[in-house]
Amino acid sequence: MRLANVLFISAFISVSLGAQALSPTEAGRTLDAPGTVPARVGRLVTHLNRAMPFVATDYRNRTVEEILQRGAGNCADHARVLRSLLESRGIQVRWVQEINLQAPSERRQANAAAMVQKRGAQASVFGRSHNDHRWLEVWDPQTESWFPADSSIGVSGVDAWIHRRLGFSDRPAAVAEMIAPVFVEALTADKAQVPRSSAYLIEGFNQAYGGRLAGLPAWPAWVASVKALEPLASGAFRSEVDLHGQGRLFEELALAYSRLAAEAQALNLVPRP
What is the pLDDT along the chain (273 residues), one digit of tens a residue? Predict the structure, then answer.
């Protein structure tokens, strides 16, 4: 038996033995403790992140009950469970779809190309140097604004999300493969697509660094590339655009982010606390 097969089987057994049914009652108690909506959601995100191990997708659509019984899940599974718990308490949420930069992988490209043949252009949201991701936005009635909640990586709140996902310092293991998000889009209850790339990847990113990123030489290229990708990525999620033909644009995004990081570090720029 090949070593790769042995490692895969060992990992599968480990997940199967380690995963336990997740208690919605316990999760609910975490959510029901006193506090603002962001504080309550933050506690629940931390709880789910610890209680429900992340596993790579197997392309099965499970119900919330099946995910809870499995006690483990991918990013979409985490978002479904989190959404169910929050909506059960009357907290307004909406689904978010993301694309992020990744180190080039010919294996991922081959898998993605096969999925495009099978399911259409929507599968091109992952490929050689990019991958897709799912999380939620939650409505905060006090500030009348949306904030991110992602239990698969254990982060909630705009500042925490930007530090963890876009910051130039060392990354936690949970996001080590995600170089930087380059497309963010929310979905309303009736599936209308709401552009969110500028809010997070341009305005929010710059504000987190006290507005100083906008003065860096690489900033215009980053902004232009993010804006260029937005309609294409949105079209890909509708299965209207094949992103595998946009390799040059992903290279430009990766180069712009890399230059931003180098320029920010040369000036010792750090995000606000």
Answer: 333 333 333 333 333 334 567 888 888 899 999 999 999 999 999 999 999 999 888 888 899 999 999 999 999 999 999 999 999 999 999 999 999 999 999 999 999 999 999 999 999 999 999 999 999 999 999 999 999 999 999 999 999 999 999 999 888 888 989 999 999 999 999 999 999 999 999 999 999 999 999 999 999 999 999 999 999 999 999 999 999 999 999 999 999 999 999 999 999 999 987
**Both tokens of residue 24?**
């919605």
Residues 6+ away with beta carbon under 8 Å from 162: 200, 204, 205, 208, 271
Sorted by sequence, the CB contacts under 8 Å of residue 63 that are 6+ apart come out as none
**Cβ neighbours of residue 34 under 8 Å, at least 6 residues apart?**
none
Residue-by-residue DSSP string for 156-215: ESHHHHHHHHH-SSPPPGGGTT--EEEEEEEE-TT--EEE-HIIIIIIIHHHHTTT-GGG
Would you kindly state where each structural domain of the chain is located, as residue ranges?
1-90, 92-273
- Predicted model pTM: 0.90
